[in-house]
Design goal:
- The structure is a single chain.
- It contains twelve helices and 19 strands.
- The chain has 430 residues and is of the alpha/beta class.
- The chain has two domains: 210 residues, FAD/NAD(P)-binding domain (3-Layer(bba) Sandwich), CATH 3.50.50; 148 residues, D-Amino Acid Oxidase, subunit A, domain 2 (D-Amino Acid Oxidase, Chain A, domain 2, 2-Layer Sandwich), CATH 3.30.9.
- Strands 1, 2, 8, 9, 10, 11, 17, 18 and 19 form a nine-stranded mixed sheet that branches. Strands 5-6-4-13-14-15-12-16 form an eight-stranded mixed sheet, with helices on both faces. Strands 3-7 form a two-stranded antiparallel sheet.
- A hairpin with a 2-residue loop joins strand 9 and strand 10.
- Helix 2 runs parallel beside helix 7.
- The structure holds flavin-adenine dinucleotide (FAD).
């Protein structure tokens, strides 16, 4: 009997528009698998998909349903790269690992669009590019440097100056931007559900409504207890990100969960869409507060950024974003805003994603620092390789020690305190 009732999918535009979910009945009894994956967001689903593609027997345990976490609620922006520019990554990790990290992270959108194409996932996918834009003079040099570093590495990048941005964006706000043509966007809940279906077709069993409550070693296996049964597995992959609980010691306090919020408008007419965002890619702004936005396939405007550190459910909960959109494009004034929602992502003080191996056969991958759509998907093949016996040196990301953030409780309190919020964001550069 299942003693846990899964939480409903929170209201969002995607909850109303994404393709239907797959059936994910709760675990019922005790079973064995080669690999048990915990968490069915992009990290868990991509790992499961790539493991199953190599014939591995995988069971996924998800507290609620695939895409319930950040993966089904995000801005849908499939953005290349890490927080830091390529030169910094190579300086931080050395020319060999650094170069592989750059290649993997900046090509990550191609992994997403390949999965969508290979499994014919209905998720409004569009590889129309990602713009990283500056509206303040002090960010122009950063954009130019990022462009030069990308061009030196033969990346498909362009530098757009102010007039080019006017043409791409229908607004005078921007001084310049870096366009990376690998980026784009998806309906993220549709993508998560499509990945779940693809994984099931490859033989993965996904148990929704099944929280992993406890993990322990039993002989050479790992045992995972849930309210409705146990899974015994040779290996574990944990991908719980901003929803990490106390399942694995220290993990919850190794990341800071941060809410981000989104407002979505009703569809605007084609001629208005052509005026306001002719490029139709994804854009995020540099600055103290990161604002990100895009148009979806149906000409809805999706504006994302800072919000209260709680679940929200109305566009008025993020009214500043609605006001901002109307300032960017006054022609949006007559159109209604229909949805507002939020979710939690995980950030780390070093702004890098974290892979840990806290015990033999246990892999953890968390903290994409706001860039998880492409990165978490691209981590799937990496996690699969290591899980199936690849050496740590073969992974294109360092496997590091799991460490708690000192004064973690204070970080959480600070993030929740509105007055400190801007300063924390400054510090975290998110
Ligand atoms: C509002 C918002 C906007 C964002 N916009 C963008 C964007 O436009 N572009 C971008 O690149 N990134 C964006 N992000 C970040 C991105 O969504 C995340 O980095 C990414 O989805 C992380 O995927 P994940 O699978 O690691 O975690 P999640 O999708 O959060 O999944 C974790 C899952 O683990 C489950 N879980 C937790 N504990 C347990 C347990 N004990 N047992 C079983 N299951 C458990 C949860 O229920 C959840 O489903 C955004 C995030 C948010 C919240």
């Amino acid at each position: 009997m299942n003693a846990y009732t899964r939480a409903a999918l929170p209201p969002s535009l995607y909850a109303d528009t994404a393709r239907p979910p797959v059936a994910t009945p709760p675990l019922d009894g005790d079973r064995r698998a080669s690999v048990c994956v915990i968490g069915a967001g992009f990290t868990g689903m991509s790992a499961a998909l790539h493991l199953a593609a190599q014939g591995t027997d995988v069971v996924v345990l998800e507290r609620n349903e695939p895409g319930w976490g950040a993966s089904g609620r995000n801005g849908g922006q499939v953005n290349p790269g890490l927080k830091w520019d390529p030169d910094t990554v190579e300086a931080d990790f050395g020319p060999e690992l650094g170069r592989r990290m750059v290649a993997m992270a900046w090509d990550a959108p191609n992994v997403v669009f390949d999965i969508v194409a290979r499994h014919q996932i209905e998720c409004e996918a569009s590889q129309a590019g990602t713009l990283r834009a500056a509206f303040q003079g002090n960010n122009v040099a950063e954009i130019r440097a990022a462009f030069e570093q990308g061009a030196r590495r033969d990346m498909p990048v362009e530098f757009l100056d102010g007039p080019a941005m006017r043409t791409a964006m229908g607004t005078d706000r921007y001084l310049c931007a870096l366009l990376d043509k690998r980026g784009g966007h998806v309906n993220p809940l549709g993508y998560a559900r499509g990945m779940a279906q693809a994984a099931q077709q490859l033989g993965v069993t996904i148990h929704g409504g099944t929280p992993a409550d406890k993990i322990w070693r039993e002989g050479t296996s790992w045992k995972v207890a849930t309210p409705s049964g146990t899974v015994t597995a040779d290996r574990l992959v944990i991908g719980t990100n901003g929803y990490t609980d106390d399942l694995w010691p220290k993990l919850r306090r190794s990341v800071v969960p941060v809410y981000s919020g989104i407002a979505a408008s009703e569809p605007v007419p084609d001629d208005v869409a052509r005026e306001i965002f002719p490029l139709r890619g994804s854009i995020y702004e540099l600055g103290k507060i990161t604002t990100y936005y895009r148009l979806d396939r149906w000409n809805r405007v999706l504006m994302g950024g800072r919000c209260r550190q709680t679940d929200i459910s109305e566009p008025s909960d993020v009214q500043w974003m609605v006001d901002y959109a109307r300032r960017l494009w006054p022609q949006l004034a007559p159109y209604k805003w229909t949805h507002g929602w939020s979710g939690q992502l995980a950030v780390t003080p070093d702004h890098y994603p974290h892979i840990h191996e806290p015990a033999p056969g246990v892999l953890v991958c968390v903290a994409y620092n706001g860039r998880g759509v492409a990165m978490s998907t691209a981590m799937g093949p990496q996690l699969a390789r290591r899980t199936l016996g690849g050496t740590a040196a073969e992974i294109d990301m360092p496997i590091t020690d799991l460490k708690e953030i000192p004064f973690h409780a204070l970080w959480k309190t600070a993030v929740s305190a509105r007055v400190l919020y801007g300063r924390i964001r400054d510090y975290l550069h998110i």
